[in-house]
Model the fold of this input.
Amino acid sequence: MCYRITNFVLFFIVLLTMCSKGDSPTGPKKNTPGIPEPEGWTLDWNDEFNGTSLDNSKWEYEVNGRGGGNNELQYYTDRPENLFIKDSMLVIQALKENYTGPDGARNYTSARIRTLNKGDWKYGRFDIRAKLPYGQGIWPAFWMLPSDGVYGGWAASGEIDIMELLGQEPQKVYGTLHYGGQYPQNTHTGTSYSLKTGNFAQDFHLFTLEWEEGEIRWYVDGQHYQTQTQWYTTNGKFPAPFNQRFHLLLNLAIGGNWPGSPDKSTIFPQQIVVDYVRVFKKSE
Done:
């Protein structure tokens, strides 16, 4: 009897110890341990792409051929040909092919994903480490849109572009804010950052946005290149519209008003390769 009681007590103590460490199967899901946190910031959300497919608890596909409001030429799909995980990296791949979907026929396919209602933030630090594509008409973007549209349609509720690149200028990236009134009464402000040598297709680079109340900052590889503190919306007081929840988007567009169409020099397939996406909140 004493032997059985002793074993039961030991089992109960071990069980309590496991639960106290957060190992209970009903406990909260933990982010990947061991991720370095920048000074003054605490990890809030991340995707290291360590699985075999896109994590649907964090991302959703946007499937359409509507041109993104920019006369883009691609059809965004949810096919593994256009988005897949390889070697713990997210790959968004643009192909030159004939493809027909509910929105009609297109000559290019690609992918666009977002965190809407799965990852939404008011302020924070956003880190994306990636290798970018290149070529005439190639347009990768890491950006943010309002999750709730409190101040009205685009761009009265704002848009934050963490990184955009025109493939014909593979050494240069852009950081931009869109705001003001609803289109066409909108405006935008921003600037660019250029590498001193090489281009963004040759190696991985870290693209960072730090967003606090009344101030938004852009970095490449830890180099600060822009701060914005002035913006507005016709439907609210400063710091509106950038005082509401926004979500992340990653996409690879082909063609459109800004980059222009691909030409004979453009090589396909083209890829965005993402090592990780990490979101930090300000430490208290």
Summary: The chain has one domain: 42-282. The chain is about 5% helix and 45% strand. The CA atoms of residues 157 and 241 lie 5 Å apart. Residues 1-30 have pLDDT under 50 and may be disordered.
